[in-house]
Queue: 2 jobs
Job 1
Amino acid sequence: MKDAAAWRDYFVATDDEGLIALAAAASRAVQSLDQPRPGPRTNLTPAELRARVRALDVCPYEGVDLSTVLDELGTAVWAHGVRPLDVACVAHLHPPSVVPAVVTELSIAAANQSMDSWDQAPVATEVELHLMDFLGERIGFPASASGVMTSGGTASNVLGLTLARSWAASKVGVDVLKSGLPEEARRWRFVASDQAHFSVQRAAGQLGLGRDAVVSVATDSAGAMDLVALDAALARLDDQGLIPIAFSATAGTTDLGAIDPLAAIGQRARERGAWFHVDAAVAGAFVMSDALGPRVSGIELADSVTVDFHKLWWQPFNASALVVRDVEHFDLLRVRSNYLDRGDELEGMINLVGRSLDTSRRFDAAKVVASLRTIGQRDFAAMLEHLVELSDYCAQRIEQSTDFALLAPSSAVTCVFDAPAASASDLRRVQQELLAEGVMVLGRTEIRGRAALKFTFMNPLATRTDVDQLLDIVAERLRAG
Amino acid sequence: MKDAAAWRDYFVATDDEGLIALAAAASRAVQSLDQPRPGPRTNLTPAELRARVRALDVCPYEGVDLSTVLDELGTAVWAHGVRPLDVACVAHLHPPSVVPAVVTELSIAAANQSMDSWDQAPVATEVELHLMDFLGERIGFPASASGVMTSGGTASNVLGLTLARSWAASKVGVDVLKSGLPEEARRWRFVASDQAHFSVQRAAGQLGLGRDAVVSVATDSAGAMDLVALDAALARLDDQGLIPIAFSATAGTTDLGAIDPLAAIGQRARERGAWFHVDAAVAGAFVMSDALGPRVSGIELADSVTVDFHKLWWQPFNASALVVRDVEHFDLLRVRSNYLDRGDELEGMINLVGRSLDTSRRFDAAKVVASLRTIGQRDFAAMLEHLVELSDYCAQRIEQSTDFALLAPSSAVTCVFDAPAASASDLRRVQQELLAEGVMVLGRTEIRGRAALKFTFMNPLATRTDVDQLLDIVAERLRAG
């Protein structure tokens, strides 16, 4: 072996020398974040950013000193990212991250457990199961509940709807993962509101049903599913001989934060023997607050629930979960594999690959547990409640203003609005200008065909004064148009 | 706002005070990895691990001091994980991770860019594209190539085969993601070897074709696809009126490391107008070595290639890529969304959500770039070549030994063997004993219905002496049975 000494330095070692080196490198990585950044991002153009990035040779013949590499990343990359902690970073459900999670990411990467099989993650498997049980309890699920971590809300929704499809197929005696979609699958429909996340449609596309198999139910003025429209849609499906195999309700829509009437939708799903999925990527965090929890009442009726820890739990990407009311539902998915999940393991050795659409998978549960233990339930709930109040305040200010028109009440942490005097292209101009100049990362979307701007409040350190200033900036830009 | 001061400490801040606090916490996280661990893991049972984990309250009412939380994770979790750097951790394609990647994970989490849209990842988008271009060049793709990072080899394979399905559908005028599988999809088949990773079957299941739609082609004694068997299988498909829409070749099978005859398979795919996918999760790294590169010759004919950075590139989970020979193929996937990817952005603002099955997605490209720049091409290639030599050496030793029988030549970094005197249950006993006692994390699988043991060499710091010792331990256990 030629270069054992040189190679040794590349790898994480947990002896004294290795840990000293790792700590020094970590300290340098932290320093590399120390960049002069005025506002939510710098004003470099895409072409300028590209030039700086392309100046770095991805893999030179001979390696570069690690400290230099980290410093280069600082000046070329971290200096020009967006800063989710900046109060003017309000476009998306894109949170600032908490310290316990960020430093635990380092431990996760150093230990590099892989969640697919017990022999790659003996204790990590138990930590993930413990977190899933905790979440199941907060949701109000029975003791039969469990779950699995996924890479994001989209993956969680796809997994939930994959289970729904298998469930429907099993009732007509078909193992759809083995034999493919049966003929009657042409009549299968997913039911969701017209404000549901696009991942519901994407799941239908992926699963071979097609986006057209998603029945889009009209919403009320707040953006929540309208039950009269739902019942009318169900009656039409009955008339056409079509079968709603899954009801996907949303707890916290992407744009309006609206929460569908979960209990009523769940009841209809139950009556029809359909799967009841709740996409609580956004408002799942409400189960942590006594004040906000009642808003997601009915979630405990679900067969599967999506919760994104990388939204209102302030976790760095990626950290999502699919929680199911009955762990046995995962059997719908399980395929034994010779090398990972044979089924002849010793007592208690659980291979989580059996409940996941992934194989190798990182130990994201560790950072969530570290964060929740550090923050505690009281502060967690208080920060969440503060964000909801901040959004309510913003909605009030918009309603009182002559510059803006509120497009829907604030249901969670978003405010969507337009301006009576502004065209769609005015709104686009303002959002793109503020982004290009690095003044504000502002949301832009469409509500019922109407162009709109959007604030998303993810940062508990933001204040009412910050909200006032954000509104002033947008109003001024609109007037300057 | 009630507790701004207390809350402030929870969040990463990039001012002086914030960075000092972050560095201190990072240092404590590193310290928490300093646990007495003899061998690849401790010998605690699943029940004992469970008890220690369950003793931690996931979210107490009042938070616990961060240092305490990190220390608890150390003693309850990190002390009892598996250690991929230990030379006796040889079960899976589960690498020890490199320092530049591990500390960059901290920066990634602190900066928390989200790769779905430019306004959440302006410079990060350019870094990912730069890395994908680099990989495309090493593969030998034309300049039209590009790619996208995914959460793992399974996700990359699913994405590649999703494109293949859309490609086949588009040729008969169907947008399958919109309208669902057309009637003729009953005749669609994926072609892969009987040693292909189970994610190919899983993709077929997910996509609505079913695992039964995967035509399993016999392999030669090394585990590579047999071309005579392939041509026979294709002739049978023709006779039955079935259509191979995708050929999925494997470069580095999970158990044997075998590399299919890529060029010949690619040629057959081309002749039939089918999609050519190469699952190079394992041997994709060979494109980094002049000596090993020729083994994956023909990879440049692919339409899509899976490469796992979290295997032989020594990256912590998750880091995988799907590289396509023509970036326009991603248009098969794209669905505009009002809030993320409207299509009216300023020049150069690319929203990567348009080429991904994920939405929110972490900036894993940063750690790969940091690692490759630090290690350099020379050392990277040398470490990879060392592992292949080590596996060859192990295969020789097994062939020379009367204790063992080699089940196939070593094609990459794995050796699969059994023992003439041992039954399947003897092999199981040895593997489970060594795992339970924390002596060795040994692989166990099945090759052509025969129970087998497996070494997977992922750690470049391992030596021939280590290999000798591993073989001695297994031989002794078998004799003790």
Job 2
Amino acid sequence: MSEDQLIRNYFVPPHSHPMRDVSLGIGDDCAILDIPDNHQLLTSVDTLLESVHFPKNFNPKHLAARAVAVCVSDLAAMGAQARWLTLALSIPENNSQWLADFSQSLHEACAYYEISLVGGDTVKGELSISLTVMGIVETGKALRRDTAQAGDLLYVSGNLGGSAFALSKILQKQEVSTEVLSAYIRPQARLSLGQALIGIANACMDISDGIIIDAERLAKASGLSVDIQLEKLPLHAALASMPQEQAINFATQGDDYELLFSANVAKCDKLVKLATNLDLSLTCIGSLSSDSQHSYTLNNQIYSTKSKGYSHF
Amino acid sequence: MSEDQLIRNYFVPPHSHPMRDVSLGIGDDCAILDIPDNHQLLTSVDTLLESVHFPKNFNPKHLAARAVAVCVSDLAAMGAQARWLTLALSIPENNSQWLADFSQSLHEACAYYEISLVGGDTVKGELSISLTVMGIVETGKALRRDTAQAGDLLYVSGNLGGSAFALSKILQKQEVSTEVLSAYIRPQARLSLGQALIGIANACMDISDGIIIDAERLAKASGLSVDIQLEKLPLHAALASMPQEQAINFATQGDDYELLFSANVAKCDKLVKLATNLDLSLTCIGSLSSDSQHSYTLNNQIYSTKSKGYSHF
């Protein structure tokens, strides 16, 4: 199969899929895309490599769903609307069943997030997926991580630890419920929440490497320190019956792709309404200060955060 | 070294580099980029994998220069101005000398093409570089490959075969002059030519997989056929003393990243002036017709094009 055929067979999106602001999609040297007036372009790239970011022989349908969610989450974290993505795919062999499953799930995930696949490159090598996502936001409105204010409350969406717990079960080849599994294979990129936080949150990012390492990144970018009460971390239901410290270990390991954001205390009412409207919990887990040290407590005791989350290198 | 440190140490562009239309660069979930009014966004992704797209143990300085040129060439092919790129880098180990050489050359290539590195992801795996480039063009002005007209003359910029000849020497571990080597390691993305062809060319693309396979792609996209006289192919100086058929083999193997474009015969004078202004040869190698068959001749004899160029899979 030539690369042209491979693209036609698997990667040109179905005609039924909406292509928003796409003047020219797959098939030329570049895609041609329309940015509405008074909007900025937001972009981010993520790579998922077999045996590093997902287990060996991982179901290609799960892989595509997870890859899109992980990458779209970066757009959500800045309050952007998702628009376009490009795929750099490296696969060990031309396996048509794998390609059919992967591409079908990829198109489904794109339809779900209303993001259009507009370009790609396919090579023969170890299994790896790099996605570059592009989105738009009204000029000057993007949520950044370096704009938190001292005194802001620190919030996290949804719940934590389900993904790390599911992965540990997968790696130990233990049974796991579909609901828990979905926390790992299909994290929810919080696009609606991110967009709704514009005008409410002072700073925002997504939690990919773990809530502690990521909270410290947000604080550092803003010249602040974090003060987190770990007993407040919203835990995934699967962790409910676990000893508290074990549950917190799962909840700080990352891969949850929830949003971590800071807001002035005066925004509390708006956040309560927003949580109701989106049917999504928004939990205050601490605050930001201009202290020189981060502070972590568990049930009012100082808590040592040796393992802060995922390290890439 | 953490990923944050690796990015700070190697991939944040030097302060001296111009960042055009970059509201926020590396360091947050996404980059924030400004699209001028009345312009469209163009984007393309290319992956270069060790032992597939470049030889094993290839000099990292050469690799970065080549990767940027190959990817920027897709913007040139559509008449775009280069603006931004994101890098997905997979490397087998955290080799600081390799990273220093690669990143220095990457920043130099970005400065040369006036394109800004605005995001990236680095993972540990087999050596592979995926670049997504973004550029802009006045709305509706992009050069496409599906808009050639029957009767158009078919032109190619620069000369062909130097890159394939240099690679054959590298793979045979034979001596090769710096000038020939540079055809492979530092192809010239024809940005100025692409932009100047707006309003002159009816269709345009870059030659990556070989002039025959690429000419047929352009013709097919436009619903036409090609008629190419192979003795007209502009040959790299290194091929001058070679038997003609051997030279043509090199000249049709691809990796030259010259522009292939079609233009109405009435544009001939403009093209002659443009070639002089840019100090770049623009050679008419044939034409496009509504015939049902492609036609290739060499010295007025029908020529069989068995090997049409590079196949990715």
